[in-house]
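INTERNAL AUDIT FORM
Audit reference: QA-55
Scope: verify that the stored structure record matches its stored sequence.
Auditor: D.O.
Record contents follow.
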Amino acid sequence: MAKPLLKIQRYFRRKPVRFFSLILLYLTAGSLVFLHSGIIGDNFPGTRGSRDSVVASELGGRTSSDIRGLGIMSRVTRRPARRFGPRWARKSGHEESMRRGGDYTSSWNRALKGRNAKDMEDGRAKYIGCYIDNTQKRALRGVSFFDYKKMTVFRCQDNCAERGYMYAGLEFGAECYCGHKIQASNVSDSECSMQCKGEKSNVCGGANRLSIYRLELSQESARRYGSAIFKGCFRRPENVTMALPFSAVIQNMSVDKCVDMCTEREKSLAVLGRDRCYCGFPTPLFSLHDLEDEDMCLHRCPGEEFESCWNDQFFVVYQTQVQDNRCMDRHFLPSRAKQQIALASFPGAGNTWARHLIELATGVYTGSYYFDGSLYNKGFKGERDHWRSGRTICIKTHESGKKEIEAFDSSILMIRNPYKALMAEFNRKYGGHIGFASQAHWKGKEWPEFVKNYAPWWASHTLDWLTYGKKVHVVHFEDLKRDLFSQLKGMVRFLGLNVSEDRLLCVEGQKDGNFKRSGLRKLEYDPYTTEMRTAIDKLIRTVDAALKKRNMSGVPAEYMPR
């Protein structure tokens, strides 16, 4: 036995390349065996592969990929904005015999492995049960969307809550439906057994079966009426026919009738006044800027038990699902820009939202110092352009430092309360642009380390732009939220463009876009320690002093420590 081994040893000494080739082949063979065992394991009964085959057999032999394709082709829905309703029309949130559901990301599920969505209790969503769904007559008839790779329970709940719906339902592991009421009968929970595509530990309905949750909406989100957004009570314009050119008398006036009529006329505003319904768009003659007390509009509609229609001098206004297209056209600059203008901010300070507003207001794409494929897919077409291309109106950047800043001719500097900005960036880092970090991240070592590293950057970023920027226009995120019309108008003028008031009013109606986190999943405790607050408060004072030194208004009062 020793002689053959000795011969082999001498052979490989003379030809070491062959020795290493043999070792490589051995390792490759071992890897293939390991992968093969993993593939076999995925096809055991009870896994996604077997479930898809069961569903296919139930639907006449179609494969899951065929069914998904049919689903995408057959369902096209509009994406409405948030819904509001007057306080006299609010419903009680009490529901009998409901099991609580969860609002968590896939990473949160990993931290709580083994717990089911129906067992999570956090007061923001309640699991109701499994319901029949029909492609011809949907159980939930609001907005819907599909994601055959990353659908999760929380993602569906979050999207429906953001748009003000009362219910969120998941079907076929990847489809999400929203609605204000359930228009179908319930069945046994065992019929909702398909795993969510984005989180295997939870169930997302079944074939023609919806796992439905009732959402605990914030007061702001809950203010709605059916599919329409309640805008409020407003004084009757002096020239009604000019402000709201289309109107009709409706017998037994109701909110539904007026909203339906204006939707058919493709108008974004439904305005109720006595027995007449007015339709139109926000204009300088009827801008919806001067909101009146709701008590001024308490006269009941003839065809309604609770909803109000008018008072002698006041109108009740709703926004329909019709999109105001006066600010939707966008294009690249026809000729190369002469100046490079930065849209600079610390991460989490609302840069993406500001880009959305600027593009709607100007009709010109914004660019970026970086490339983010997810933002490109959401409509930021300037994302792929090199930042020096000169085809975009301004360039998003989080950079700081003399060399990077001096590359720009001027800049809009976005500043946000550091307590809010740090939390927003932490959510983005661990949950995506409109997602949320998990509780495991907030309570683990990641959050303290993040604050330690990022809080000083919040201050140094602003100080660098104030020091090295050639021409700086400061915009506070909080001021932009409070007074979008005038703040955005100032930003557009700084960019060297004139914009009509009609277009700015159109932007106000679509200000949120798809870049705002909903209030469905807010932390119920303060993540900042006393030491963190002491350090951040000192940074706020430093930035406030730097702004005032340059004859600018300091930080908003809400930033300052109390």
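Auditor finding: record pair retrieved intact. Residues 125-215 form one domain.
Action required: none
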